[in-house]
Every structure is written in C-alpha cells, then in structure tokens.
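Ticket #4471: structure export looks truncated?
Reporter: QA, pipeline team
Priority: medium

Steps to reproduce: submit the single chain below to the structure queue and open the exported record.
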Amino acid sequence: MRDDFLSDPLAGSGPTRDAEGMTRVAVNVEGRRLSLSNLDKVLYPETGFTKRDVIDYYRQVAPLMLPHITGRPTTLRRFPDGVTGQWFYEKDVSRHAPDWLRTARLANSRDDDNGSNDYPVLDDLASLVWAANLAALELHVPQWTVTPDCERATPDRLVFDLDPGAPATIVECCRVAEALREMLTADGLTPVPKTSGSKGMQLYCPVRTEMPDDTSRYAKAVAQRLATEQPSLVVATMTRSARTGKVFIDWSQNNPSKTTVAPYSLRAKEAPTVSTPVTWDEVGGCTTASELRFETNDVLERIAAEGDLFAGVLGEGAPVPA
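Actual output as written to the record:
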C-alpha cells in the first residue's frame, strides 16, 4: 500500500475482531478516528478488487471529487457482499452515522413515504472514507445543495442523462451529445460531458435560477426538440419499447427529488468502472464503446495528466434559458 492512513493504523490498534467476526482496524483520517472493517473483502470478484482498493481509490480521487459533491445530500448505493450480492439504496443514516458526520434532514418527496431522512453530506475525506467503508460503491447526488437550514436550494446544475437502448451504445450517445452541445451553447450554456461508468453518459451545465422547476422544463423542451429533429436516433419518452437502437434523453433527472451518479463515483459492474469526465475531443472521436470505458487506474492516470476535466461545472452558472 501507499504511504497513507490505510498502511499506518493508529498506534496500538492493529487488526481486531468484533463480536460479529469482522476484522477491524482503527485509522486517523484528517483528525477523525474511523474503524475500518474487512479491508481484504473482495467486492469485485471478477477482478479481485477489495474494499481496501475501494477506500484507497476514493482517498486518491477525493481532492477532485469532493468539490462536486460538497453540500449535496448523498444517496448511497451499498454492496456489503460485493457487486454480485444483494445491494440497497440508503438515504437515512441516522442510526449509524458518527456524530461528526454532517447530515441533512430533508422531508421525503411526494412520491416517497411520509416522514424525513437524515442524508449524509460528504464534505471531506473522512466522510468519503466512512461511506466507502460501508461498501457504498456508488454515490448519487441531486442537482442542488442544501441550505444551512437543510432546505433544498434551487438547482445549480442542469443535466441530460443519455441512456442507449441496445444495440445502441455510448458511441450513439456521443453523437447525441454533440447535437445537444450545439443547441445548449446556442442558448448560452456550457455543457461538460462525463461517462456514466455504465452504458451511457451525461452532460452537465452550470446554471442559475430562482425556480426549482426551471431546469426540468428547459431540459424536457430541448430533449423533445432533438427527438423531433432526429427521430431515428433520439427518443425523449419514458417508454422502454421505444428506445431500441436509440438514445433516450432522460430530462427527468432534473426533478428535485432525483439524483444522478456523481462524477468520479465507482459503478457496481463486473469491474470497477468509474463515471469519468471526458473531453469534447474524446466525445467527437469516439467510434467504439471501449474508448470511453475507464476503470480506477485509468481515472487516476487521467487526473495526474489532465487534472479535473469536470471543473467547468464548478464555474458561474448561466441563466436557465426561457
């Protein structure tokens, strides 16, 4: 291991076993004491990628990832038995979160049960490591941040989620992304692309608005327009049977109650693929799906060479077009 907290446990706190038989080690992460469990457990059986590897990946990517998720209530997609086992979404962490972890108590959306959830807000490395230790391989965040009073702020991001229907792939998504880019830039927006880490990709634009529904309204109009202009390639309806061989532009991801996989998040696939920011040159030059498939080592190498290709989303947002 590298010279980091994973290879330097707290003095006098070597691996121990708890009452449930879990191997635990205490570490110090930027002044926070964490108890990490079963670091050698394989979470990606096909590649042998362990929980230790998951935590170490998030440790290394944290400086670039954290600015994109800070202040955003996070939904954890947890895989305690690895990607081939049972998994679940977790929004409410009130029963087991450490007292130092920032949480945001938010009322459930209208389509959820009554009540509220204490969402984790992953603002620092210790919080990110805490989530990774829960085998929260995937981190999903909304397009808005929480206010100091734990209210939903108005959206500061616009997102288009491009989902290919087989036999279409991310190659077709790239062609749709290029068409969307032309439309969005004509409206004064600055789209930034990333892969989903799965089959498709997303385009994000930094925006500003006072109306929570503005982004959904605009995104729906753009998606429907492009579906009308390119009906053989694009579909803007939710009907799955209509997606065969086409790219579904999921504009509904802008709904305040929905979340999208965070940039630099792992995905729970056979291998540890990552939702990876890409350049427009890469989008334009993509001719095979493998060209835009990135695993953890690929992402860390890209970061070392190019920095944060998603930094444009952190810039000042343009008004949502009428």
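Status: closed, not a bug. The export was complete when the record was re-opened. Leaving a note from the reviewer for reference: The CA atoms of residues 219 and 251 lie 5 Å apart.
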